[in-house]
Amino acid sequence: MSVPRPGDRYPEVISRSIEDRDAFWLDAAESVSWETRPTRTIDERSASEWRWFPDGRLNVCYNALDRHVEAGRGAEAALIYDSAMTGTRASISYEQLRDHVARFAGVLHDAGVVAGDRVLIYLPMTPEAVIAMLACARIGAIHSVVFGGFAANELAVRIADAKPRVIVTSSGGLEPNRVVEYLPLVQRALEIAGGPESGVETVIVRDRDAVPGSAADYADEQGIAWRDWAELEDRATPADPVPVRSEDPLYILYTSGTTGSPKGVVRDSGGYAVGLGWAMRNIYDFGPGDTIFTASDVGWVVGHSFIVYGPLLAGGTTVLYEGKPVGTPDPGAFWRILSSYGAKMLSTAPTALRAIRREDPELVELAKYDLSSLRAVYLAGERMDPETWHWINDGLGVPVVDHWWQTETGWMICANPLGIETLPSKAGSTSVPMPGFDVRIVDSKGEDITAPGVEGNIAIRLPLAPGALLGIWGSEQRFVDSYLSAFPGYYATGDAGHYDEDGYLFVMGRTDDVINVAGHRLSTGSLEEVLTQHPAVAECAVIGVHDELKGQRAAGFVTLKHGEEVVREELAAELVRMVREHIGPVAAFRDVTIVERLPKTRSGKILRKTMRQIVDGEEYRVPATIEDPTVIDALIEALGDTVSAPPTQAVSVPR
Ligand code: COA
Ligand code: AMP
């Protein structure tokens, strides 16, 4: 490593994690309750296959709930539910949560779910989401949570890939401008996935007063049993935790890659419990008696790690918030929650802060609340712009820490480890690497060029830290192709950046076609697949352009088939609707530009980077390999006619 390590205690911790790796992680494993304590740290089976704590056995749900109850802390709050959408506020103790989870685990068991089976969870931000996830973990089933903002098609892709035996859902979610009915979406997704051929046997529906639709409306359609959560729960016997091998999957979480088909990131049980547990103590400085408010969604990795598993493994209290940072009802929503529940930490995405800043730049709302319990704010999901960082850092007067990680890694690759020591934060930097993540800068040939100020691909030496992905569900080869083959011996993060002279890492952006819209990771490839389905569209390119609020937004450039005549606004509205129906509202796709031709190299590669630079008004250099330089001038001219379609309201889903 040719960059310095800042701080007094951090360098010692990181050195030990590298030089005495086994002892370091076996020590960390002491914080977990094992059914069989591991004697070995890691089994490195091949360049692409390693397993943490290979001889350990444990149950993650037991670690998240039962052991805290057994330690006499059953009456302490595990989960606080706060819905700005319905006004509901509830506190659920560890003992109550354990009982709910055990009973729902019994429901899953009665539905035939056994260890290793997949259960797909499609639930809004209500306690049932947490209960269903932990109930799967309790019986060794593998959950796969799908974010509510995805459309039926995306749900179907995940059903077809994960092949769940059971789907757990509810009548729906509540967005500020509409009610999102889930059941027609689930029904449509099942149709697309092949009905009973998909392997789904039962759909369990939690009836939600605020949203129409119940299991009874769909009873046994398509040869699949639709059942009511409450009725099944009444009949179920609570299930005990089932110990599993450390390497057994706890969950599959789908994320966007460069292609249209999402990748099912496979998370293990033991490595995750140890790695995430380490992060809670040493990065977040979080433990029993502490409360964390993570403003995200259980459909994302942030929700898995820092709404559900992290806080509960650590024995603290987690806040589950159904609402937005602004508009539900005002930009003081986050401050209200932090103050009402005495939260020590806020973890959120920069977009949320930009949304608050736009509505309340002077932080007038903040002054209404007592935030004396707040110790730190952690931000992730997208690049934090220095301006917003300064604004919130000055406004709150507590450390505002930008930390970097991915669905794949499960916890922070880089952070400021407040539980070890508070390093000075730097605007625009995600601070320093965490144990288990040996972060290097490599050139396009995979040569290590790590040195202060040198920009390149950010790669991590293998094996990855405990808790990081073990593979891609259903395809060993895809794991190798997606992450391990670009730079042999390294995991390719897909991000580019550099270290500075103090050893701080700056993550500057993706090197692939993944874009980040409001902290939501999307593949431009999957958007392009949708646009090309339009009968008038010949070719298209989707790029991520700068957006003041969401960091990036997707902009579509289309060429028309020969002889096609369209009304620009109509075409744009149709394309927006198609993206909404195929991918979902979360894509927030609005901008369409019709061009004569797309700028390409002579070998046919679309010049996306140049296009992005042009749209963002940055300096750009047209590569010498361009097929026809006049296309650039035509593109610039066409930008004046970009249609920014208004948001479509309800999505019609055929029943
Ligand atoms: N279910 C159904 N639809 C959803 C949804 C969900 N769980 N979450 C979002 N959507 C819909 C929204 O209703 C919106 O639909 P619309 O086009 O009909 O208005 C669309 O998806 C885009 O949503 P969003 O990106 O949230 O934009 P917004 O304009 O509604 O809100 C912010 C802007 C900044 C308030 C919002 O993006 C936000 O809270 N961001 C925080 C980011 C975050 O937590 N990211 C998690 C990763 S760490
Ligand atoms: P996801 O898997 O959805 O969490 O997205 C991971 C990607 O989001 C990373 O590869 C980065 O491109 C981006 N990202 C996450 N956190 C940060 C951060 N703190 N700074 C810059 N980019 C980030």
Low-pLDDT regions: 649-655
Q: For this structure, what is the CATH class of the domain at 57-323?
A: Alpha Beta
Q: CATH superfamily of the domain at 57-323, please? A: ANL, N-terminal domain
Largest sheet: 7 strands, mixed
The N- to C-terminal Cα distance equals 59 Å
What is the number of strand segments?
Answer: 33
Cofactors and ligands: coenzyme A, adenosine monophosphate
What gyration radius follows from the Cα positions, in whole Å? 24 Å
Strand composition percent: 15-25%
**What structural category characterises the helix and strand content?**
alpha/beta
Q: What is the CATH topology assignment of the domain at 57-323? A: Rossmann fold
Q: In the CATH classification, which architecture of the domain at 57-323 applies?
A: 3-Layer(aba) Sandwich
Shape: globular
**In what order do the strands lie side by side in the largest sheet?**
5-4-17-16-18-19-20
The amount of helix comes to: 25-40%
Overall pLDDT score: 95
The tally of helices reads 18
Tell me about this structure.
The structure is a single chain. By secondary structure, the chain is of the alpha/beta class. Among the domains are: 57-323, Rossmann fold; 518-644, 2-Layer Sandwich (GMP Synthetase, Chain A, domain 3). Helices cover 30% and strands 24% of the residues. The strands form 10 sheets. The chain has a 7-stranded mixed β-sheet, with helices on both faces. Strands 7-6-8-11-12 form a 5-stranded parallel β-sheet, with helices on both faces. A 4-stranded antiparallel β-sheet has the order 23-24-26-27. Helix 3 (60-73) runs parallel beside helix 10 (301-313). The radius of gyration is 24 Å and the shape is globular. Mean pLDDT is 95; it is low at 649-655. Bound molecules: coenzyme A and adenosine monophosphate (AMP). Coenzyme A binds at residues 148-149, 173, 175, 177, 180, 295-297, 300, 302, 324-326, 349, 351-352, 355, 381, 518-520, 549, 585-586, 588, 647.
